[in-house]
Amino acid sequence: MEICIDSVLSGRYAITGGASRMAVCSMLSEGGLTPSAGFFQFVSRMSLIPCYAMLRTRPGDFIYAKDEMEIMKADVKVLKDSGADGFLFGALTEDGQIDVPACKLILSAASPLPVTFHRAFDQVADPVKSLKTLIDIGFKRVMTSGQKDTAEEGLELIKELVKESEGKVTVMAVSGVTKDNILKLHTECGVREFHASAKRKIETEHNRNRIKIGASESNYVMVTDKNMVAAMVALHPVPEEIRRSYSPVI
């Protein structure tokens, strides 16, 4: 059970809820961007469960210019030095194909650490062909909602992708994964790994004047709900060897 987080508080709640891996980002409100080195290092030291770092320089599409790729390549080195156990990355061409040169650049920079191809996959033109491309170039996991808004809606495609993967890459279900559908996704699709935010909204305590700062609401923040995480983990248990690696530092 991988939980995506963009704050220290969310990291602590993901750990205490029983997550087996964290996807560490900034700006989950924008789909997740590259975290700062300081934030990533702090979170990775809180727990011994694996922490993967998002590589995404900006919101928007996944078609990257050469300078953006150079930035993400540099981020890989910094985040490796900060304790990353793996990365999440995805890049596409303008016609919806996997950007193979961009992906190979990141895979090479990240080696020997594993790289997950993130939800850019849900925008590819041909998902089965793209899955085979990702296998060929060395990705370890592929995140997908079956090219629908939620994994439950995309169940049929996810099932097909799990079959087509032939165990050569792990297909992860993402988007709208909850305690109410995790067993369905597991039994009907054969999915063995899941990615979720498990977020709840909490009111902030210190915006006294109720003014809006930036595009997001200033009166609320989204944080991981440890009870949501625990409910999903209870239905799809974490292997005991991973569970024993949890750090008591919370």
UniProtKB/TrEMBL annotation:
InterPro entries recorded: CutC-like (IPR005627), CutC-like_dom_sf (IPR036822)
Lineage, top ranks: Eukaryota, Metazoa, Ecdysozoa, Arthropoda, Hexapoda
A GO MF term: copper ion binding
Family matches, as SUPFAM superfamilies: CutC-like
Organism name: Melipona quadrifasciata
Gene3D superfamilies on file: Copper homeostasis (CutC) domain
Similarity field: Belongs to the CutC family.
Protein name: Copper homeostasis protein cutC homolog
